[in-house]
Amino acid sequence: MKDKVSIVKCDTYEKCREGIDEALRLIGGIERFVKPGDKVVIKPNLVSKKEPGKAITTNPEFVKAVVHIAEAAGGIVTIAESPGGPYNRTMLNAVYGACGMNYAVEGTNAQLNYSTDFTEVDHKDGHTVKRIPIIDPVLDADVVINLPKLKTHAMTSYTGAVKNLFGVIPGTYKAELHFRLDDRKAFCSMLVDLCERVGSVLTIMDAIDGMEGNGPTSGTDRHIGLVLASENPYELDMAACDIIGYETDEVDTVRFSIERGHAVSSYDELNIVGCDIADVMIPDFAKPESHFNLLKLVNLPSALNAFFVNKLASRPEIQYKECISCGECARCCPPKAISMDSGRPVINRQECIRCFCCQELCPKSAVKIKRSLLNKFMIKIVR
Ligand code: SF4
Ligand code: SF4
């Protein structure tokens, strides 16, 4: 029997408890996943210190509702995340504070995780990584509840259930993986490896307010008005991608999930319950500037293809008017391609691997994605 993906309309965070309850009821209820006494880890998307109203991180009302639901089922709840940047108590405190997580646990018995312990675990069947460092609360949990936000992503095109689990890898190791796996496909293959290793999770997606355009942090808020839930993170991602207008082969994590047999092979085969997906599609959902796939247009020999892909690739560009020279981009840049020697950030184009971590973590949204002239020209002629 195919896993269900529930889709429920929910317009406001004030009413999100009702929406989440209904999304869970449609897939069998929280009792299917959380038993009395279970150690439950809730993993929201807390990418960096961002205010909840910006639609970048999982909304605290949404997290709070899930804490209440898990506790009502008898779970002992911890909220855990390894945000972008260093993984230490100071950073965790700052991120929890900015993202409203103190409010999310207020009046409950839930704890915020401050342990920075992690363990390197084997994943012998991994296609790209065979050993993965994972933060201990996630490894020790009986149940992981993944709370991604529906957003576009400059590097991976889309971020949802599978990509959100990148936040179970401790900070500096994330930068190392970006550096080692500088090709988008290899990086996305690693994300699927990681999701396999984390294993069974319940995913409840905050798609009430999402982000379109240059996500995951510099795009535009977009009201979507939905809650999605499933025990199958790969198929939940497929449903979300269908809603925002991606083909299955445009998002590498989705493509690999299908190829590895974790998901059905087409949108038509998904077992959707709740809303009819055709009624909630958003065909004009803006994609990131970086999202442009020449390979879909022409079939070139691989050497020529590599040349054009390089020429067409979008690149990060610092907007010095908005930049406050805090140096965060230089600290988070995996190959150390950003120099602050002149007192302001300067990107070495030869060393940049186009991971867009600088764009993701800049507190002032001062890193924009710039298309090359050839890229702009190609888009004009194909539209
Ligand atoms: S992180 Fe943003 S604000 Fe800080 S130095 Fe880099 S570009 Fe400037
Ligand atoms: S400059 Fe930005 S996009 Fe380029 S490698 Fe560094 S962090 Fe990644």
What is the fold's blueprint, element by element?
Layout: E1 4-9, H1 16-26, E2 39-44, H2 60-72, E3 76-79, H3 89-98, H4 101-105, E4 111-112, E5 118-122, E6 131-135, H5 136-140, E7 143-147, E8 149-153, E9 157-159, H6 161-164, H7 171-180, H8 184-198, E10 201-212, E11 220-230, H9 233-243, H10 252-259, E12 271-274, H11 277-280, H12 302-312, E13 315-318, H13 328-332, E14 338-339, E15 346-347, H14 357-361, E16 367-370, H15 373-382
Parallel strand pairs: 1-12, 2-3, 2-7, 3-4, 7-10, 8-10
Antiparallel strand pairs: 1-11, 5-6, 8-9, 10-11, 13-16, 14-15
One iron/sulfur cluster is lined by residues 318, 323-329, 345, 362, 364, 366-367.
Model description:
Helices cover 33% and strands 21% of the residues. By secondary structure, the protein is an alpha/beta fold. It has two domains: 4-280, 3-Layer(aba) Sandwich (Rossmann fold); 294-382, 2-Layer Sandwich (Alpha-Beta Plaits). Strands 1, 2, 3, 4, 7, 8, 9, 10, 11 and 12 form a ten-stranded mixed β-sheet that branches. Strands 5-6 form a two-stranded antiparallel ribbon. Bound molecules: iron/sulfur cluster (2 copies). Residues 318, 323-329, 345, 362, 364, 366-367 line the site of one iron/sulfur cluster (SF4).
What features would you highlight for this structure?
single chain; alpha/beta; Rossmann fold; Alpha-Beta Plaits; 15 helices; 16 strands; 21% strand; globular
Strand content: 15-25%
Average pLDDT: 91
Which architecture of the largest domain would the CATH scheme give at its second level?
A: 3-Layer(aba) Sandwich
General form: globular
Q: Gyration radius, to the nearest Å?
A: 20 Å
Helix content: 25-40%
Structural class: alpha/beta
Low-confidence stretches: 293-298
Number of strands: 16
Straight-line N-to-C gap: 41 Å
How many domain regions?
2
CATH superfamily label of the largest domain: LarA, N-terminal domain
Ligands, deduplicated: iron/sulfur cluster
- Under CATH, the topology of the largest domain can be stated as Rossmann fold
> What is the tally of helical segments?
15
CATH class of the largest domain: Alpha Beta
Biggest sheet, in brief?
A: 10 strands, mixed
